[in-house]
């Protein structure tokens, strides 16, 4: 896979194409950026990603609360920014708060702000993230880590569009659009009394599931090229070739850390590359998994289909069906179910996934 890269170590950003060299010498042009031309920073052309972007287009123009669901490293903040940039609030602030990194004792002050003297060390008045996001968008990342005792205050703000700074009795109005994200199972957290049910329903107005990288492997070549160019440009290095065999190996890894893991690997590889050919060193763990790639791929696909059927309560077709969520035609999904021995008449069986197989757990789990 040969990249056409400008010799200038700091070239202006422009459309660059990839040419794949095969044994015959045939060259095939592949667009570099994929969805990037429409959604800045979002790279890929897979059906799974396109389905997410269609949902972004649908919800962006409204002021509805959006809940982004996905594993760590899947790019939830990029999707949140895309929603903001395509909304009527795009000229206003996009404010982020990662709920997982703020100590519980400081969380209320970070979110709602505080008055001078509200607590020890509060030497001046400070605006919170809610206030800073007024007329714009507030992105609450890892919302599942929000302290339970503060969840009623967030719920009140969402319902009444008001808040009070810590240490103040004055109620202030706010106009903010909320996008929340989590990698947690909020429904299970509700059962465990770790997340308020009323807040969950207020957040879950328009849920969007962000697919993990293993479900959009066809985007990996574009991502590899994008990150290679990004970090080569950053350190003033010219890398104009990415071996096709390297890309194929990367497509077989399961990427538990998702796009963030891939980006870190490519950044490290660019630094270690001493010539114009990208040299990617895979760990022993990755090589071991790649040797059994076909088995892993089939098992993961089987898991994905079963879990999606669970999420849709056995529904295959329609706007809330498994086929649409998986980004495939109904007939394609039925073929894959047949391949994995999933009987369409028994889709209401709840499956338990073990280390090496998937077995029925209980019939009519969704009734």
> Which percent range describes the beta-strand content?
5-15%
Shape: globular
Q: DSSP helix count?
A: 14
Instruction: Could you tell me the CATH topology label of the largest domain.
Output: Rossmann fold
Overall helicity: 25-40%
Query: What class would the helix/strand composition place it in?
Result: alpha/beta
Biggest sheet strand line-up: 5-8-11-4-12
Structure overview:
- The chain is an alpha/beta fold.
- It has 3 domains: 2-31 and 220-291, Orthogonal Bundle (Helicase, Ruva Protein, domain 3), CATH 1.10.8; 47-209, P-loop containing nucleotide triphosphate hydrolases (Rossmann fold, 3-Layer(aba) Sandwich); 293-362.
- The protein has 14 helices and 14 strands.
- It has helices spanning 47-60, 76-85, 104-112, 129-132, 151-160, 186-191, 197-203, 220-234, 244-252, 258-272, 284-291, 293-311, 322-326, 330-339, and strands at residues 2-3, 17-21, 27-31, 66-69, 94-98, 113-114, 126-127, 137-141, 162-163, 172-173, 177-182, 206-209, 350-353, 358-362.
- It has a 5-stranded parallel β-sheet.
- The N and C termini lie far apart (51 Å).
- The model is unreliable at 1-36, 349-359 and 361-367 (pLDDT under 50).
């Amino acid at each position: 896979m040969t990249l056409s890269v400008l010799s200038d170590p700091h070239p202006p950003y422009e459309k660059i194409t990839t040419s794949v060299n095969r044994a015959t010498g045939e060259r095939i042009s592949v667009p570099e950026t994929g969805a990037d031309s429409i959604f800045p920073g979002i790279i890929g052309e897979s059906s799974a990603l396109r389905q997410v972007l269609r949902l972004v287009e649908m919800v962006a123009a409204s002021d509805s609360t959006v809940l982004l669901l996905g594993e760590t490293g899947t790019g939830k903040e990029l999707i949140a920014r895309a929603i903001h940039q395509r909304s009527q609030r795009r000229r206003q602030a996009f404010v982020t708060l990662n709920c997982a990194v703020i100590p519980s004792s400081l969380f209320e002050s970070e979110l709602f702000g505080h008055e001078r003297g509200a607590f020890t060390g509060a030497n001046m008045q400070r605006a919170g993230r809610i206030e800073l996001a007024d007329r714009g968008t507030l992105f609450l990342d890892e919302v599942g880590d929000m302290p339970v005792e503060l969840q009623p205050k967030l719920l009140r703000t969402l319902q009444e569009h008001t808040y009070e700074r810590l240490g103040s009795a004055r109620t202030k109005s706010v106009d903010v659009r909320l996008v929340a994200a989590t990698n947690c199972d909020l429904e299970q957290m509700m059962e465990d009394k770790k997340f308020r049910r009323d807040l969950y329903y207020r957040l879950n107005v328009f849920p969007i599931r962000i697919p993990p990288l293993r479900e959009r492997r066809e985007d990996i070549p574009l991502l590899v090229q994008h990150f290679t160019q990004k970090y080569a440009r950053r350190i003033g290095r010219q890398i104009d070739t990415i071996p096709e065999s390297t890309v194929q190996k990367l497509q077989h890894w399961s990427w538990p850390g998702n796009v963030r893991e891939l980006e870190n690997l490519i950044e490290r590889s660019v630094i270690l590359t001493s010539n114009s050919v990208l040299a990617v060193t895979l760990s022993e763990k990755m090589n071991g998994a790649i040797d059994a790639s076909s088995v892993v791929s089939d098992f993961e696909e089987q898991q994905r289909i079963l879990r999606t059927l669970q999420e849709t309560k056995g529904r295959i077709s329609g706007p809330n069906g498994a086929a649409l969520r998986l980004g495939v035609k109904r007939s394609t999904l039925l073929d894959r179910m047949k391949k994995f021995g999933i009987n369409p008449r028994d889709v209401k069986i709840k499956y338990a996934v073990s280390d090496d197989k998937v077995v029925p757990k209980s019939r009519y789990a969704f009734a």
